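Hi R.,

Here's the chain you asked about this morning:
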Amino acid sequence: MFDRRTPAGEVAAVRDGHAPGALVFDVGRDFETLPPAVAENLLAVVESVDPLEYDEAWIPDGAPETLSKLASDTLTIGAPGDGGVCWTRQTTPPAVFVKPRLAGSPEGFVRFLIAEALVEIGLGVPEHFLGFFGDAYRSLDEAVPLSPADTYQLAAALHTAHVGLSTRDVFAGWADTATDLHAEWDDAGGRLEPRLEDLSRDVAVGRTEFADAAELACNAVKHGVELPTPFDALDTVAYREHGVEFAVRWAEKTFEALEDA
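And the predicted structure, written out as tokens:
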């Protein structure tokens, strides 16, 4: 189920600089959240496991079941929306998982995703948005007129943007030290820009759901590309410094403006 991948070249240097000793695995099957029985198999390939446990009081009624799993004492790794690579600090040493869904993707891009995960491990950011929002997730849920699933997607996007405000400084710094990884980061940002051009209008006329638009725009934060309104307010020092408080207030003001439009 877990096949060890040995980072080399620039990725190995990123690991050594940001997450020394972290392990990288190719996973035998795709997943959003690893089933507990499978997650327990990690004990065969890591030194120890220390499951995270979030406060169940943070979770509003009707929220997706994944959040209840995270709040339990069962080892829960991965969540919907994580993409082709996810990571955890619930193991010693920390671990990065490359999913089969990336089969056929350009190897350079896969290496960038692994390097990104290693940087995030080293920054100490929460593994999941529930660890970022804490009890303020209820405030976000109350602030937006979205379904539980869309609120989950929006919260995940807001967490991604906040992390991206820190990681992009690292990625930009690779211009001289990890040129191949920097090129992948820059190329991915360039491919996002055309998709952002009409995003505000698409949301206004109903061609794009707000949560989908937020996911796209917030993923672009880590690339330092120009964001459309209202998401440009998230690409600020204020969001970087004030985090959750800023995110909830931004959501309140954004939906007030949408209702008045």
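The two ends are 51 Å apart (CA to CA).

Let me know if you need anything else.
M.
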